[in-house]
Amino acid sequence: MIATAARTGLAPAPLWGEGRGEGELPERSTAPASDERQPQQQQQPLLQLRKINSFYGPVQAHFDLDIEVRRGQIVSLLGGNASGKSTTMKIVLGLLKPRSGEVLFNGESTLGLSTPQIVRRGIGSVPEARRLFPAMTVRENLLMGAYARSDRKAVAEDLERMLELFPRVAERIEFQAGTLSGGEQQMVAMARALMGRPQLICMDEPTMGLSPLYVDKVLELIARINAQGVSVFMVEQNASLALQIAHHGYVLQTGRIVLSGPARELLADARIRDAYLGGDGAARTAS
Predict the structure, then answer these.
(1) Gap between the Cα atoms of 112 and 248, Å rounded
(2) Residue 11 CB: number of other CB atoms within 10 A?
(3) Which residues partner with 137 through β-bridges?
(4) I want to staple 193 with a disulfide (CB 3.0 to 4.6 A). Which of 47, 48, 124, 206 is the partner?
């Protein structure tokens, strides 16, 4: 069972700088509540995708896609293979330009920006399959996450924070990244993204290929990162686990949003249970 951190109406302790006691990592005991429990400041959208239409050559991947991530939230984008989930991440990160629509971060368009410029604006990435540099050490991989920063003292301080947040990473700090297990590599990828001090982290299939033990650990760490003030936009196929730690969810099918709402409501929705969680409807279809 995934441990989850209780959320209150109080602002989360920041991951960076003052306000965070050494070693403070709030434990999660229940799934997050609805958006109404978030402070008013956190109700303003951090990331918005509006009426996105994207194509690969003549093939349309998205149809008037609308997605919103508010400050302080974990938002899960659910869907099967070829539904357009990873393409959505590419659009947010500037790796694919939509034919029409808007992408806004902090109220400003990112469509004219390159991926490095988008990262500097405050969006971090944990890509599918981790994408570490296997011949480099874990330390070197983490420092690559701060490549756009010039504040060396703060980078060194943030590296120490990452080693506190990810003790398993600290144990492997001088190992080549390619020698780590899949779960350990996922933690390195998450820590690397945090080294850029992002406001928002985009995670593409963070539990893919992990053992059940590391699935729980990774989801717990996502929840803890969020509890310390970093918003998370997560693509995931495991609907049950993703919705347990999310505030809000969207279901994508063949490029269209077919369901959306607070995570707790989606978990209770018969259509989600049937499609993803092996509900009665799915059992009848299989028989």
Answers:
(1) 28
(2) 13
(3) 176
(4) 124
